[in-house]
Amino acid sequence: MMQVDLNCDLGESFGNYKLGDDETILPLITSANVACGFHAGDQHVMNQTVEIAKQHNIHIGAHPGFQDLIGFGRRNIDVTPQEVYDLIIYQLGALSAFCKIHDTKLYHVKPHGALYQMGAKDSKIADAIVKAIKDFDDQLFLVGLSNSELIKSCKRLDLKYKSEVFADRAYEDDGQLVSRKKDGALITDTQQAVNQVLKMVKESKVTSINGKEIDIEADTICVHGDGEHALNFVKEIIKQFKSEGIEIKALN
């Protein structure tokens, strides 16, 4: 039986601002990427998200990003590799503390937004991310864009990884994600999203925004928790995967 992980970026509410439908989505997925207070989330939301994830036996991952609440961590920031290393360590420490008090563990790390995209393209940024994760806990997985510099860095520096694909994002011809600033970057049609992930899992291919067939490795599928159609996407992916005999299973 084919197996694939289903992850979602969660814990992104902040203070009085609620984002996403975490409590409904969490029981349906297998891995949760929890915001660590820089791009989104706060100490209360982190604590609550870890507690709910444990209740549903969901694998918890850290979702560290740039310290950019107003831009939701999606704006590129001119940083050195050392600055990247330090911000990863800081955020892993914060989330790991909440995991400890709930007697659960951290399984993986998935960089957020602009940090993820920069690491996917820049080998020095990728190496800083991977080195920070490995120095913090060399048993953690990195979750990174399939075929990107993040995955190459894991291979160079000997860190476990899972190649990630996206249900709700379009791809460029080179395998990078289409910028959110471009038309067509976000997939909003449920069946289109399901068709895309089915093709990635069953055929290891995705069709780019320009119609090019790209080879891709799908260990884990992401649905963005802040997306308007996130819950529908998750439910329909689970339904159609079941009918295709594809098992949704957590990273291990």
From TrEMBL:
Could you tell me the superkingdom of the organism this chain comes from? Bacteria
- What's the catalysed reaction? 5-oxo-L-proline + ATP + 2 H2O = L-glutamate + ADP + phosphate + H(+)
- Keyword vocabulary terms for this entry: ATP-binding, Hydrolase, Nucleotide-binding
Asked if the Swiss-Prot or TrEMBL record annotates the protein with the keyword Cytoplasm, the reply is no
Asked if the Swiss-Prot or TrEMBL record annotates the protein with the keyword Cytoplasm, the reply is: no
Give the matching Pfam families: LamB_YcsF
User: By its UniProt entry, which SUPFAM superfamilies does this protein fall under?
Assistant: Glycoside hydrolase/deacetylase (SSF88713)
Q: What GO MF annotations does this protein's record show? A: 5-oxoprolinase (ATP-hydrolyzing) activity
* Coiled-coil features, chain-numbered ranges: none
Query: What EC number is given for this enzyme?
Result: 3.5.2.9
Protein task: Catalyzes the cleavage of 5-oxoproline to form L-glutamate coupled to the hydrolysis of ATP to ADP and inorganic phosphate.
Q: Which family does it belong to?
A: Belongs to the LamB/PxpA family.
| NCBIfam families from the UniProt entry | PRK05406.1-2 (NF003813), PRK05406.1-3 (NF003814), PRK05406.1-5 (NF003816)
User: Quaternary structure per UniProt?
Assistant: Forms a complex composed of PxpA, PxpB and PxpC.
The molecule here is called 5-oxoprolinase subunit A
Gene source species: Mammaliicoccus lentus
Query: Taxonomically, what lineage is the organism?
Result: Bacteria, Bacillati, Bacillota, Bacilli, Bacillales
Gene symbol here is: pxpA
